[in-house]
Structure formats: structure tokens, C-alpha cells
Amino acid sequence: MTELQWLFAILAGLYACECLGWIRRGSVAFSSMTGRRWRVQHPTSVIGNHRGGLVLAMPLPPLGGLVVANQLPFSLGPDGVLFFVAMNMNPGWRPAQSGRFLAWEEIVKLRLDGKKLLLGREKIHAATTTTLASHLLQLLSMLAKLGSEQRGPAIKQMLREALDTKRIATLAVNLRARMKHIRLLANILFVHVFVVAPVLITLVGIQVTWLGLVIVMFALTFSIATLFHRAHREFYPKATDDRFTHTLTTGLAVATSLRAHDILSRPMLETFHPIAVAKVLLEEKRFRAFARNLLLDLRHPMLPSCPNAHPPAAFTENYFRRATLEITEAWLEENGVVCHDLCRAPVPLDRTCHAYCPRCESQFMSAESCCSDCGGIELMIFQPQR
Ligand SMILES: [Zn+2]
Question: How many CB atoms sit inside 10 A of residue 296's CB?
Fold first, then answer.
């Protein structure tokens, strides 16, 4: 390979890295090719671990879109906060969690250091973005200040707000409008870098073309950076450090500039529950499949449901999971989904299957065993078909 071919290969490699994103377990990415039809992406276990995994944004024009929604990384109750949630909406491992319990009286001097939540000098949680970390800090600080009898209603209100589909739909529309020109310029930049530049250099020669190609490339990256800065200030007014860093890299690094729309969109819906984002973005059939898995997991969580034997910790886990289940089921019914029908038992794959796991729906020949993939959940026996 010539030096020029190496240069394009390195640029393509850098761009491929920009298309990959790391998300935590307990998070779900929604990706789209055109911004209209969306699909679910869970953190992959092929290139991932018990903490998270990779997701892939659409690498080719029209460059698509990517948003990420998260479940809360802790259980909340009237007595305190447990850094563990039993729910696991992703296939495979449950997210790695400390299981530490803090009474609300201990939540003093809580502060932020970038993406980290610190209690004094000790790190108690690391979020994936600074905006999400800021949201979690506000949430914990607000609950810590309330009286114990006020916390239950406040927690339930917070759970309902995370399911606000009207707000999600409004944000999605605003995002699409704001990203329109950024994505158009990114597509032009993609064609310029990976099609026009190699063709012109091959046909005409680098000595004649390099200056014009570089000027056009930086004109495009600076335009993208300018639009990105404006949109970021509108959507994330307090994230000044993030805005400075991202604007700088978007203006100077071509590979980052090509994915500027992802940097903008990815945290947009991060404080909403994935099931509500799924309701807004997915087609009805895909939404119901997603909701079914999530509801089965909520009703039959992977075991152990609480790793901390301390009674207030176990109470908080149970309180939060039951509150989440109650509010999610009510929300589904409001949205025309009959939970009983949604969670209907599976049909046996063949005559040898006598039992199934109520969480992951794996089927078994004997009801004597349990589902080891779900931590030892007791199996349910297939009822005779009428
Ligand atoms: Zn199972």
C-alpha cells in the first residue's frame, strides 16, 4: 500500500471507532438508518463484559441516528438508596453493581466530579455522561432533603416522569429538526472524504488537488462544529465543559465530525425509561416484544434479587422493584396494552418440553430443575392446551 492508501485506511479505522459506542448494562440503545424506523440494540456480549458492551451506529450514508435510554442504576426507598437493581432488561449478564446501601441521613456532601458521584471523597457511582451524572445527583439530593413520608410519593412521581411519552416525542421532534443540517453536512463530508478525495487524487494527482480538498474538508468540519455548538447549547445548556471539548474535536477531527449528530443525540433521552422511549420510537409489534421481555423480567427478576442481606437494603430493593412494576403495568394499560395478554405463557416447542422459565422463557424437559441462566428461578409447568 502507498502512503496515501495507508492514510485513508487509518482515517477509515478512526471513523469505524467513532461509529462504535460503549453503553452500560441496564441501558438500551435505539438506532436508526434514516431517523424514521428505529431498532433496539442491547450492549453486545461479544465485545463486552458484565459492565457494558458495544453498540453500532449506522456507518454509511445517510448515517442514521442513535439515542440511549437507561434504567436507574440504584433502588430507591423511603429509608435509603441501594446501589443495586434486580431488573435486567438486557439479554445475558445483569449489570455489575456494588450492592451498597446508604441511609438518606448518610447522603450528605454529595457532589459531582465529571461523570462521578462522590460522597465526600469516595466514588459511589460513575455515570456514562456528565449530564446523566448531574441528573442522578439532583435526584438523590432532592430525595435526601425530604421527610421519610414524602419520599415514597416522590419516588413514584419520578418513576412516572421517566415514562412521559409526550415529552419524549417532543424532544425527538426537536432533535430531528436540529440535526437535519448537521447530518446533511456530515453526509457531504463523508462523500468528500471517502469518495471525491480518493477519486480526484487518483485521476488528477495529489499535488494539484490537495489544497482544494483540505479547504473543502475544513470548511465542512467547521460548519458542522458551529451548528453542533448552537444545538448543544440549546439542548444541554449547563454542560459547558462537554460543549467546549466536543466542539473542538468536531471542528478539528474529521472522524468525530462525521458523527457529530450522534454526540448530540445520544444523551437526549438518557433520563427516560427504555420502555417509554421504545413506545415512541418503535413500531407497535417491536414495542410489544420489547415490553414483554421487560415485564417478564420485572415480574420474575434474576436471582438473587438482592445481594445485600442488610434488612433495610432488602426492603429498599423490594420496595423499588414493586413500585416500578406497579407503575409500569399501569402505564402499559393506559397505553392500550393488556399486561395479562402480553405476558401469556409460551407454547411448548415440542412434546418433550414440560416446563419453562417465566423470565427468559427457555424450555425444559423436566420441571424438577431450575433456570441457571436466571440465577436458579423455579420453572413453571406448561398447562394442558384446551
Ligand atoms: Zn431463565
Answer: 17
